[in-house]
Amino acid sequence: MASPSVNLNSGYQMPIYRLWKVNNDTCADQVYNAIKSGYRLFDGACDYGNEVESGQGVARAIKEGIVKREDLFLVSKLWNSFHDGDKVEPICKKQLADWGIDYFDLYIVHFPIALKYVDPKDRYPPGFTYDGKNVVPGKASIQETWTAMESLVDKGLAKSIGISNFNGQLIMDLLRYAKIVPATLQIEHHPYLTQEGLVKLAQNHNIAVTAYSSFGPQSFLELDMKEAKDTPLLLENPSIKSIADKHGKTSAQILLRWATQRDIAVIPKSNNQNRLAQNLDVTAFDLSDSELKDISGLNKNLRFNDPLHYGVDMPIYV
């Protein structure tokens, strides 16, 4: 089953279904199996610590003739410790080497946070801390970082570049000086956190929006996050289950369709081959306007992926 795509302002097409962060021990097999199921976009990052394994899964699929490199849309992200202008290209090249590829289809600024540089030879991925204990801010501005990101496109290391976890003010500021407008904005987005104003701002500027954590608290239970444990699961929500029953679909499929029907790309995550296929099969039906409205009405402005929830004193969402 093929994945539908959206057109980016950079001129490329991006599949609207992705595979997000997975465990190292299962990553290579999961990427390989996802390709067999029809997935073509894989969303990686330095901070996930599994890019070598992701590349192994991709290489296996290419070697077996299931896909060619040009059939895939491979994404990675610039971590906070590498925002200095002269550090962007070297870390991008390292990540490309980890994947075993020559270019990224999309390379994203992971957070609008500059931290002090950590040499990958000393610790990789570095996480939020400089020395394993202390969070030390860096000095790079978003403009410095973005200018270096633009050079990656000029040098053929990335076909498109984007941003993640940016708020509206930062986007409006970036657009004042950007020579290359971000192709995508990746944000936490689910019925508990609809961010309708931010989505509208991005789409008005022809910036494609990608939602991560489409199932809300589900993604953060494995992190033992209190906020997630204290929140009712969207997959068990009576309204969503009722809509799922009406359409003969799973709650997960309803949550994904709620996003994609509103032109938002999604990043489903599953270790189960059958659910991988189910998550891809959500374009053969449409939700009614009232169903879309009912799901959006669950909004609580409840954010889980906040540095403050990880004990990191970087209040970027206040």
Your description of this structure?
With 318 residues, the chain is α/β, with parallel strands linked by helices. It has helices at 24-37, 51-63, 85-99, 142-154, 168-177, 196-204, 226-229, 238-247, 251-260, 273-280, 289-296; strands spanning 5-7, 13-15, 18-19, 41-43, 73-78, 104-109, 158-164, 184-188, 208-212, 264-266. The strands form 2 sheets. An 8-stranded parallel sheet has the order 3-4-5-6-7-8-9-10. It has a two-stranded antiparallel ribbon with strand order 1-2. Strand 1 and strand 2 form a beta hairpin. Helix 1 (24-37) crosses helix 10 (273-280) and helix 8 packs across helix 9 (251-260). It is globular and about 55 Å long.
